[in-house]
């Protein structure tokens, strides 16, 4: 049996810690194929990816990943449990038999995930605090520090999905080396601080030559959406609950997205939760669009090397892949096409039509 290893990533941006992670997987496990399910142009915290999905997929392949498949927007911009649900489901469809992820500590993830699946039935939301705070406290009471070790939370959620769905995947972990932080790299780059010692040359070159998109670029579009829609219309947006549409309308007069976010934030809602909601509002995303992706998930290829191409050819016997957007794919990809069109508004770079996966060794 082939050893097909898979992991989940955002590569926002791809840095030296990711390279060490990939190298260690290869040295420790000797996979026949290494697959990454990667978020597209938007990331879990409700933000724009610092580089577009095509550049990040190319950099990943150039640094050792054999095949990169996109995690659809409907899963990529969600809390940890739904993010993990979509990612692990795609890995299963790619016939990955070894799930691997990074962690800060040597935790028995299968035991903890099994325990948490049983305990989750007892989880109750304390409406004096936000969901993330309640969940963090719930895990803490069960002996798991997801605040001090955030990768543990994702790891537990990945393993819960494997157990819950009886996926045929062995669980493997890599202890994270060093303290390279993608958040810190993004901040340093924004502040003009040198990051050359933290990222490979391919990432550094892309960052220097690309337009870096942030919420500040899109805030005028968000402001227009909120000002031009009635409260009942805004209420239809996915995850717009408990009168948040009225709060959005009340606070949208601020001059910057960060000021707007600060004015809306409360004990009930984290910044990540509100950034995600702001993205849904910006793109006019409805629950039925999210549900459509959940009901009919797809596999979209962003990049591969020769090993990845050979593996795709094997999988084609049982699975369908999107490698180019044509008439048949427009309905399937409708939500992602809409989301990507917002990015194109800012940097004028096509994200879908005419785009084909990066293949290492070919122009």
Automatic annotation (TrEMBL):
Catalytic activity: cytidine(34) in elongator tRNA(Met) + acetate + ATP = N(4)-acetylcytidine(34) in elongator tRNA(Met) + AMP + diphosphate
EC class name: ligase
Gene3D superfamilies membership: HUPs (3.40.50.620)
Function: Catalyzes the formation of N(4)-acetylcytidine (ac(4)C) at the wobble position of elongator tRNA(Met), using acetate and ATP as substrates. First activates an acetate ion to form acetyladenylate (Ac-AMP) and then transfers the acetyl group to tRNA to form ac(4)C34.
Residues noted as binding ATP in the record, renumbered to the chain: 8-21, 102, 151, 176
Listed name of the protein: tRNA(Met) cytidine acetate ligase
Pfam families reported in the protein's UniProt record: HIGH_NTase1
EC number: 6.3.4.-
Gene field: tmcAL
Cell compartments where the protein resides: Cytoplasm
SUPFAM superfamilies per UniProt: Nucleotidylyl transferase
Originating organism: Companilactobacillus keshanensis
Family membership noted in the UniProt record: Belongs to the TmcAL family.
Protein's UniProt keywords contain RNA-binding: yes
Predominant cellular place of this UniProt entry's protein: cytoplasm
Assigned keywords, A-Z: ATP-binding, Cytoplasm, Ligase, Nucleotide-binding, RNA-binding, tRNA processing, tRNA-binding
Transmembrane segments: none
